[in-house]
Amino acid sequence: MIRTGGWASVLLLSACCFLAGEAAAATGYYLVNVYSDPGQLTLDYKYWNAKRPGSAPVGSPELGVGYGVNSRWYTELYGVYTQTAAQGTRFFSLNWQNDVLLTQGEYPFDLAIHTNLEQYRGRDGYGLEWGPALQTEWWRTQFNLNLFFQRDYRVAQGGPTQLVYQWQVRQHWRPLLNFGVQGFGELGKWDNWNHREDQSHRLGPALFGTAYFGRQFLKYEAAYLFGTNNAHSARSVTMRLQFGF
Q1: Are strands 58-70 and 141-154 parallel, antiparallel or unpaired?
Q2: pTM of this prediction?
Q3: Which of 52, 104, 138, 146 is the most exposed, fewest CB within 10 Å of its CB?
Q4: Got the DSSP string for 106-121?
C-alpha cells in the first residue's frame, strides 16, 4: 500500500510534469496578434488556468512590457510564472518576443514572422519559437492562422523541433465587445507528427474588446478552451489585459 505521503509525492510530480509541458508552450493559450501600436508602450498581463479531470488545477501568470517600434514591428519582454497548489507561484522564464509584418495591405492577407526567445529559470537553457502568422478579413470578420516551430534547448533535457498551430475567427461588432472562436494545438515533431491520440487540440469561444482614453487604451481578451492538453483531456480559462500609453 502507498502511504499518504507517497500519494502526495505522486500528485505533486504529476502536476509538475503537466505544468512544465504547458508553460513551455505558452502560445497554446494566446493568439499571437502581430499588429503594432506605433510609438506606444504597453503593459501586458496574461493568465491561463488548466484542469484535468481528477487533478488539481495549474496556472501561469505572465507580466511584460511591450513597445510598438513602428507600424510593422512589435517587441515585448515578459516574465512567466507557474502556479500549483503544492508549490505556489514560482518564476519560470524570461521571454523576448518580436513580431514583424512582411506585408501590410499589398495582398489579400497580411504575413508576419513571429519569434520568441525563452530563458529558463536558473539558466537551465533556453527555448526558441518562430514561424509565420497570417491574417485576413472579410467584411467585419477577421481570420487568423499561425504555424510555429518550437525547440527546447535545456541543459538537462532537450528535444526535437515541434510544430504548433493557432487559429481564430473574430467578429468585429462594437469596440468594447467582439466575439469569436479560438483554437490551439500541438502536433508533435514538425516532420513526423504524433499519432492522433497523442496530439493536443483545444478550441472554444472568446470575447475581445478595446476601450480608448485619448491616446491610451485598454484591451481585453478572454477564452474558454476545451479539448486536450498534452494529449490529456482538460479545460482551460485564459485572459489577457493590455494597457497602452
Answers
A1: unpaired
A2: 0.87
A3: 138
A4: SSSSEEEEEEEEEEEG
